Amino acid sequence: MSHDSEWWQDRYYEVAAEGADPEEFVRRALGGEWGPPDKKALLQCLDAIEAIILANIEVHSEEAPGLDPVADEAHEYWSERFARARALLLAGLDAR
Hints:
By secondary structure, this protein is an all-alpha fold. The chain has helices at about 5-15, 20-30, 40-65, 70-95. It has one domain (about 5-95). The chain is built from 4 helices and no strands. The mean pLDDT is about 95.
């Protein structure tokens, strides 16, 4: 059974609450913890979560302009984390 992006987002939030990062989430998904990974749904999931995180950073930056340098660093940090998670996902699925 294939799961949709929203279902995978729920799994991401569960593991994030445990302290896992996007790469750990992908490793667990590739390991079959929640059943067979679906490339399209997982990529959509990662895109959606990244967009939410980056939008939250933007909102906080607008509310406290003095935090712009920190917001820039946070934006770069999360963008890199999700890029690595996507690369890990694609490499893991291609290896199957």
